[in-house]
Amino acid sequence: MSENDGPELGDTSLDASADRGDAAIGFDQLFSLLASARRRHALYCLAAATASSTLTTAELADRLAVLEARATDDRPSRTEIELTLRHSHLPKLDDADVIDYDPEQSVVLYRGGRRADRWIDRVMDAELATTPD
Q1: Quick one: CA dihedral 67, 99, 117, 37, positive or negative?
Q2: pLDDT tens digits, one per residue of 100-110
Q3: Whose CA is closest to 80, among 72, 91, 89, 71?
Q4: Which long-range contacts (CB under 8 A, 24 or more apart) does 3-6 make?
Q5: CA angle 89, 23, 14 (to 5 degrees)
Q6: DSSP string, 52-103
Q7: Which domains does the chain have, with CATH numbers?
């Protein structure tokens, strides 16, 4: 793969995530992360991505724009979404070890964990559930 083909998982610091254990995130920290709608929606998008696949921040912003439009009937600016992801939400999720974020290469890898996965699934099902008429 040439330098211009994009990042490979093995070529980034994100590869270290494969060796990490499933350290349980505390409830206070997890619920704080889930309190922000944009962070929650980003987690839904990342958790739905194929296991061990990275997304660029641009790909995540595209997916998030579609999800936010569906969830809120609002058309958020894709540029604004990507800026808030890069400067606020992704660093917080990375600090919590829920994702691995490489800002230099603009790639994100979902790490989750058993507790995080369970609560993300529960919240996503409740928030995005459609009710029959």
Answers
A1: negative
A2: 999 999 999 99
A3: 89
A4: 6/56
A5: 55
A6: T--EEHHHHHHHHHHHHHHHHS----HHHHHHHIIIIIHHHHHHTTSEEEET
A7: 26-115 (1.10.10)
Which residues have CB under 8 Å from 69's CB, separation 6+? Answer: 75, 76
- C-alpha span between 34 and 41 (Å, rounded): 9
Q: Is residue 77 within 8 Å of 6, Cβ to Cβ?
A: no
Among residues 36, 96, 102, 30, which one has the least CA distance to residue 64?
Answer: 36
pLDDT band for 31, please (50, 70, 90 cuts).
very high
Distance between start and end Cα atoms, the chain: 51
